[in-house]
Amino acid sequence: MYSATFIFDTRQFDDDFHRLDARIAAAARDTEGYLGEEAWEDPRTGRICNVYYWSSEAGLQALIAHPLHQEAKRRYSEWLSGYQVIISQVLRSYGDRAFAHPAQHDR
């Protein structure tokens, strides 16, 4: 399993951002092996963290190459004041299963 963590500080979101963001999210969900996503915001700093999960690297690579994702990369400075992306291979995931999570192996 693979994950892509997108951490960013916001500048100002406009209608273009929200439209592009929604279209990229839909494209991610349509990629091969997409398992799910989650998002977090630090209430102290406003920093946002989105984590996407795939069963294989192929879907992740498809999203990276997608034209909408490439457009967002070109335009990021219009909406973000900084970002970091972390691509990871998940070695294991465990928990008490009190809630569903994309990294549960029996999905």
Count of separate structural domains:
1
Distance between the termini: 12 Å
Assign the CATH class. Alpha Beta
Using the CA coordinates, give the radius of gyration.
14 Å
List the uncertain runs.
Answer: none
Helix content: 25-40%
How many helices? The count is 3
Shape: globular
H/E element sequence: EHEEHHE
- Corresponding CATH architecture: 2-Layer Sandwich
Keywords: Monooxygenase, Oxidoreductase
InterPro entries: Dimeric_a/b-barrel
Organism: Chitiniphilus eburneus
Protein name: Antibiotic biosynthesis monooxygenase
How would you sum up this structure in a few lines?
This protein is an alpha+beta fold.
Please give a structural write-up:
This protein is α+β, with helices and mostly antiparallel strands. The chain has a single domain, classed as Alpha-Beta Plaits (2-Layer Sandwich). The chain contains 3 helices and 4 strands, in the order βαββααβ. Strands 2-3-1-4 form a 4-stranded antiparallel sheet. The longest helix is centred in the first third of the chain and has 15 residues. The radius of gyration is 14 Å and the shape is globular. This is Antibiotic biosynthesis monooxygenase. InterPro entries: Dimeric_a/b-barrel (IPR011008).
